[in-house]
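STRUCTURE:
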């Protein structure tokens, strides 16, 4: 599966004639800009073409009036090794998601590894190995170059603070879903979440009924007591807590509200609405929870954006922010927002051919998923017209 090692950097890239610039920031989702200049993978300027230094570019991309957004971030995936999942024995699932506009994925635990170790030494060893392997695989071009942030240990009974310190020192930055291992009680989880936080490791917790035989229920009392940074699949994965219980989580916790594709769709819509009513839309982040029993959905994040915008009645430009800037801030990532100095990870979008919508945002608001015309990571074009989305009406062109 390994491809050539990518050592090139993008050099100077000029992206011009952008018809709609989506910032990823839900407080100012649409930017007054038609041009981005990238320097070696990093955003160097955003603005009107006449105000940008566009001379001497190695590559020029004419967007043909289409939309540009930060690359989508999937807040909840379960990778194992490479671009393979044993859950549905599928190859190439990460690269397929790249064709759905996803440039970054965050592991909620490498739980599907056959024979996954559950002893403390094994848990730590797997976390460090996964972190290294997924970090290294990007340079090998596996998964289309998508950024997979992995090495997310599922905490087990018997772990002590020193274990979290050791993992953090070795480069582990995430915990896998709490509740998928032997730690299921709120007080026990709370202690380990605090140790993780102290050592700079972010935590997430399974919410709702068991996902597959062998996993268990985590109810709202446990979620509140554990106080993990991310309320993982607040709409269940698949089986949701009651809407009343989800409202309790929205109201009594200030942590991230993660809505997933492989969850209860009714509660997904109601949670998004409730977050808007409570004036805490910044807490909403989106994930797929793939691979799972429901499989892999390469367009899962785009489908969720269209579902929430159309049925929770939230402007599409805001919902794109749930899948980009909100996740960037909640997860402390550099990517996910269009700002000078941040990585040049972009998805180029247009309304799908023959959508009833007037334009991209209107088409999403009507429930259609958009067409992806190009995906760029660190300033390097990783795919052009998506093989998975409905065809975009117009696609960007590499003119130089
Ligand atoms: Zn889960």
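SEQUENCE:
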């Amino acid at each position: 599966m390994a491809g050539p090692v990518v050592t090139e950097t993008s050099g100077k890239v000029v992206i011009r004639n952008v018809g709609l610039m989506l910032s990823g920031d839900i407080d100012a989702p649409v930017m007054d800009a038609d041009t981005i200049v990238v320097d070696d993978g990093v955003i160097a300027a955003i603005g009107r073409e006449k105000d940008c230094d566009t001379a001497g570019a190695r590559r020029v991309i004419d967007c043909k009036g289409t939309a540009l957004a930060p690359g989508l971030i999937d807040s909840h995936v379960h990778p194992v090794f490479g671009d393979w999942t044993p859950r549905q024995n599928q190859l190439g699932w990460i690269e397929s998601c790249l064709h759905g506009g996803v440039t970054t994925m965050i592991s909620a635990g490498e739980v599907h590894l056959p024979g996954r170790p559950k002893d403390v030494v094994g848990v730590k060893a797997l976390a460090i190995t996964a972190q290294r392997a997924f970090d290294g695989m990007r340079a090998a071009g596996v998964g289309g170059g998508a950024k997979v942030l992995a090495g997310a240990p599922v905490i087990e009974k018997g772990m002590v603070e020193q274990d979290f310190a050791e993992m953090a020192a070795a480069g582990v930055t995430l915990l896998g879903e709490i509740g998928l291992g032997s730690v299921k009680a709120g007080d026990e989880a709370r202690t380990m979440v605090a140790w993780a936080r102290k050592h700079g490791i972010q935590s997430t917790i399974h919410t709702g009924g068991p996902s597959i035989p062998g996993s268990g229920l985590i109810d709202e009392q446990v979620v509140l007591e554990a106080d993990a940074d991310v309320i993982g699949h607040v709409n269940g994965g698949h089986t949701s807590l009651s809407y009343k219980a989800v409202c309790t989580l929205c109201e009594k916790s200030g942590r991230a509200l993660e809505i997933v594709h492989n969850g209860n769709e009714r509660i997904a819509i109601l949670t998004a609405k409730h977050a808007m009513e409570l004036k805490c839309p910044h807490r909403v982040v989106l994930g797929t929870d793939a691979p799972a029993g429901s499989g892999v959905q390469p367009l899962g994040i785009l489908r969720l954006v269209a579902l929430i915008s159309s049925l929770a009645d939230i402007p599409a430009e805001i919902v794109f922010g749930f899948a980009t800037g909100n996740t960037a801030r909640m997860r402390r990532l550099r990517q996910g927002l269009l700002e000078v100095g941040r990585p040049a990870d972009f998805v180029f979008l247009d309304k799908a051919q023959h959508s009833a919508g007037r334009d991209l945002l209107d088409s999403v608001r009507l429930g259609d998923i958009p067409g992806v015309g190009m995906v760029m990571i660190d300033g390097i074009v990783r795919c052009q017209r998506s093989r998975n989305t409905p065809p975009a009406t117009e696609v960007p062109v590499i003119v130089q």
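REMARK: The first strand starts at residue 12 and ends at 16.
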